[in-house]
UniProtKB/TrEMBL annotation, chain B:
Pfam families: Thioredoxin (PF00085). InterPro entries: PDI, Thioredoxin, Thioredoxin-like_sf, Thioredoxin_CS, Thioredoxin_domain. The lineage of its organism: Bacteria, Bacillati, Bacillota, Clostridia, Eubacteriales. PROSITE patterns: THIOREDOXIN_1, THIOREDOXIN_2. Residues 1-106 form the Thioredoxin domain. It comes from Allofournierella massiliensis. Belongs to the thioredoxin family. Belongs to the protein disulfide isomerase family. Keywords: Disulfide bond. This is Thioredoxin. Gene3D superfamilies: Glutaredoxin.
């Protein structure tokens, strides 16, 4: 039995994936997006995106994801809801094994994105949903009127702290340095929020648990001194980790695990591209993800033309 | 099979006393991840042989969340003959839901 040979299979249905699909299908290529859950990726859990051009009053990430999918499918792109479990990327015909069957493609675009990075502390996994969370807009509602902490010092930490300050009685922002690395536009509202307290030069090094999380052990990053902070919840926002386990033995990755590719989105393997958050790049945003999708289609075309 | 919502009042009748297994999703409008899961359940509910899916809004029905010790959403439970199997919390993939259903032989 021979399955259809797709011109391009795109792994991941976030903003990068569906932008690539839109451009590839409009260039005349048979295009399949493989999505493991529902469109949008990380973007779909962001209620208000305020820096995506064209939306004065911000845009809902979930709605935008659905629209991007519809737009690509209007031109004939298709979606398979499945998880890719193995890939074979060498040679002119690529193979993908999914939970819904085998796929064959002339080219593969990885748009698998990134996920929140855990702290890596003992017991952390078991506390997921019992006091430790990774998405303030998702789980913030459980901590209404309670005391929480946010670990991190970048944009997602700042955003989480602001989201939580509207729901919770008290929010501690724990950062291992003495300044935030968040964009300046976050600083004023953070300082203005009366229930946010900054804890500088501190690192979460342990959990205090009584059925659920009851407190944190903090270690001063300069003196090594330990302290105790009673909280009902901890939101971890210390960055992201790329979803590259599928390709780690077949594509060149950087030290953090992102797929190495320049602006052309071409990876170390001919006919294989990386777009969006999973690619090495200086700024991971929706707007840079969709740009990757478009750019990759140009080099996809170049590659596919070369095959004939 | 269509999706329907269930309340504290009708839970026993429509879920616990149901003659066939029911998949219950604990959810809330503010839950971003629940929104991502909604189209998946919607899709699955259209599959042939899929069990009925009931949604509990934990904001409106805190008593049900309390009763089944749901402290994270989305949480999925399969009820059969008045009791439920293992919880599936915030599944990352549709495949995970199918596997979890299969492990409970539904």
């Amino acid at each position: 039995m021979t399955e259809k040979l797709w011109d391009v299979v795109i792994v991941g249905g976030g903003p990068a994936g569906y932008s690539a699909a839109l451009y590839a299908v409009r260039a005349g290529y048979s295009t399949l997006v493989v999505e493991m859950l529902s469109p949008g990726g990380q973007m779909a859990t962001t209620n208000a995106i305020e820096n995506y051009p064209g939306f004065v009053e911000s845009v809902d990430g979930f709605e935008l994801a659905m629209t991007m999918q519809q737009q690509a499918e209007k031109f004939g792109s298709e979606t398979l809801y499945a998880q890719v479990t193995a890939v074979q990327l060498a040679g002119p015909e690529k193979h993908l094994t999914t939970t819904e069957g085998e796929l064959r493609a002339k080219a593969v675009i990885f748009a698998t994105g990134a996920d929140p990075r855990p702290l890596g502390l003992a017991g952390e996994d078991g506390l997921r949903g019992r006091g430790v969370a990774y998405c303030a807009t998702c789980d913030g509602g459980f901590y209404r009127g309670k005391t929480v902490a946010v670990a991190g010092g970048g944009n997602s930490a700042a955003e989480d702290a602001l989201t939580l300050s509207k729901l919770c009685e008290k929010v501690y922002l724990i950062h291992r340095r003495d300044t935030l690395s968040a964009t300046r536009s976050y600083l004023k509202p953070l300082e203005k929020a009366e229930n946010i307290e900054f804890l500088w030069n501190k690192q979460v090094t342990g959990f205090e648990v009584d059925g659920t999380l009851t407190g944190l052990t903090l270690t001063d990053t300069r003196t090594g001194e330990e302290s105790h902070l009673p909280v009902n919840g901890l939101f971890v926002a210390i960055g992201r980790q790329p979803n590259t386990w599928l390709v780690k033995d077949q594509l060149e990755l950087d030290r953090q695990g992102y797929i190495v590719a320049d602006e052309s989105c071409r990876t170390s393997q001919p006919g294989v591209f990386a777009i969006g958050d999973v690619r090495t790049k200086p700024l991971r945003q929706v707007v840079t993800a969709v740009a990757d999708g478009a750019t990759a289609s140009k080099y996809l075309e170049e590659y596919l033309n070369g095959l004939d | 099979m269509a999706m329907f919502s269930v309340t504290t009042q009708d839970f026993d009748k429509t879920v616990l006393e149901a003659s066939a297994p029911v998949l219950v999703e604990f959810t809330a409008p503010w839950c971003g991840y629940c929104r991502r899961l909604a189209p998946v359940l919607q899709r699955m509910s259209a599959d042939e042989g899929m069990l009925p899916i009931a949604a509990v809004n934990i904001d409106e029905e805190p008593a049900l969340a309390e009763r089944f010790k749901v402290d994270t959403i989305p949480t999925l439970l399969v009820f059969r003959g008045g009791s439920h199997g293992p919880a599936l919390v915030a599944p990352a993939t549709a495949a995970q839901i199918k596997e979890w259903l299969a492990s409970q032989e539904v």
